[in-house]
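Page 42, continued from yesterday. The earlier attempt failed because a stray header line got pasted into the input along with the sequence. Redoing it now with the clean sequence only.
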Amino acid sequence: MKITHYVNAMMLIESRETKILCDPWITYNKISESDIYNFPEISQSDKQISDIKPDYIYITHTHSDHFDPATLKLFSKSTPILVSWYANNFTARMISELGFNDVRISDPENGIKLGKNDRCWINPGTIHPAVDSVAFFELDKKIICNFNDNPFEQKYVEQVKQKYGPIYIAAIPYAGHGPYPMFYKNLSKKELRDKAFAKEQKYYREFSEYIRILSPKYVIPSAGGVLCGGQKALCYE
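This time it went through. Structure tokens are written below.
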């Protein structure tokens, strides 16, 4: 088992049989259509990323720091793309529109068979099931879960621990990027600082709760590797 974390939620999971690249997202040459950038800046070249040649790519959801058409262009259109079984699967449609011809939607019960002995289950997310997803990979007879940047919901986490546990490795969120409170003009400077601090502490508490409930052998802090630039950066002082 080998895991390489690049930036944000982008990581490569390798078993004896299978290579799965999660959420490939790289911003080279200070170029980003969404005005958000890798933080810290990724050191690998586009050729190095292309040379990964994953057996599968898992797209957790379609937010721009997880689903990036520019980065996906680096990979063969025949690469199987793994997605969840959303009721309205616009994730699968958006990937197909990029020209990928092997989009695999996880079966709610049987998941997706990967290698001879490997399998994964990709389920709709916790609080935002129409958008987010959570993956459980059974690789080398061990369970690796990827919660990427799903908001914490205790009952959901307890249920999946009971269904898929024991958990060997857990990728779980420790921070979050979003418009609140940073882009809210109705807040004073002190209110912005106070609410940002409260949000930071909330993520730390939830990070700890994920670990307490899942009880994994290893933890990977996931997501949160984002920096605003361009017009978005001008919303800050």
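Notes: Residues 173 and 222 are 5 Å apart (CA to CA).
Reminder to self: strip header lines before submitting.
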